[in-house]
Amino acid sequence: MGPDSGKRTWLLTWTTRGTWLPGDDRGWVQGDPNNHHNTPPEPPNERLRLWHLKRLKEKPVWLTKEQATLVLVAFQETARLQDWWLAAAAVMSNHVHLIITVDCDPAPGDLLRQFKTYASRALNALGEKHTWWTTSGSTRKLPDVSAINAAMRYVIEQPGALAMHHSENPGLSSL
Q1: Tens-digit pLDDT profile for residues 38-61
Q2: pTM of the predicted protein model
Q3: DSSP string over 54-114
Q4: Total number of domains constituting the chain
Q5: If I label 167, which of 11, 15, 49, 69 is the partner at 20 to 30 A Cα–Cα?
Q6: What is the per-residue pLDDT across 82-128, written as a single tens digit (0 to 9) for each?
């Protein structure tokens, strides 16, 4: 999987709806819908967070262990059907991280949409229909093996993960 192989690796991150709002004390990014690398976080703003919280049409979504397991299976199925390599995934109660290698260079929003759609279908099959995810998410193209390895460590070391996947890529050592 070298630079000329036509494959690209992405770190995708998004949150469940209503659990990480603008103003949150964990930091948040304004004006950058893709949360590109090195976008500086905004400072906490409790009034802004409460303002957004009051405008939610449904209560915030916190995934259970059972739901997280279904989400992970949906991610694996999405990758298999698209012939993508799912390097790592961590599903927490309020957000997910994925590292995915794909052919060519698709629009990152399309990658997010594919994974969110399959995961939403799996969750909806439980009988509860929600808007499960935030609209956007972070899409970071990983430019080289060093960035991929760092992202892999980040994802597989997520504290509090309810469901986890990671696999070795024999092609990484050749980069």
Answers
A1: 667 778 878 887 887 788 788 889
A2: 0.82
A3: HT-SSPPP---HHHHHHHHHHHHHHHHHHT-EEEEEEE-SSEEEEEEEEES---HHHHHHH
A4: 1
A5: 15
A6: 999 999 999 999 999 999 999 888 899 999 999 999 999 999 999 98
Name residue, tokens 């036509």: 6
Question: Is 2 inside any structural domain?
Answer: no
Instruction: Please state, in angstroms and rounded to a whole number, the distance separating the CA atoms of residues 89 and 18.
Output: 21
Q: What is the DSSP string of 1-45?
A: --TTSSEEEEEEEEEBTTSS-TT-TT-B--S-TT--TTPPPBPP-
Q: Is residue 1 part of a domain?
A: no
Those residues with Cβ within 8 angstroms of residue 92's Cβ, 6 or more apart along the chain or in another chain: 63, 68, 158, 160, 161, 162
Q: Is 27 left (phi over 0), alpha (psi -120 to 50) or beta?
A: left
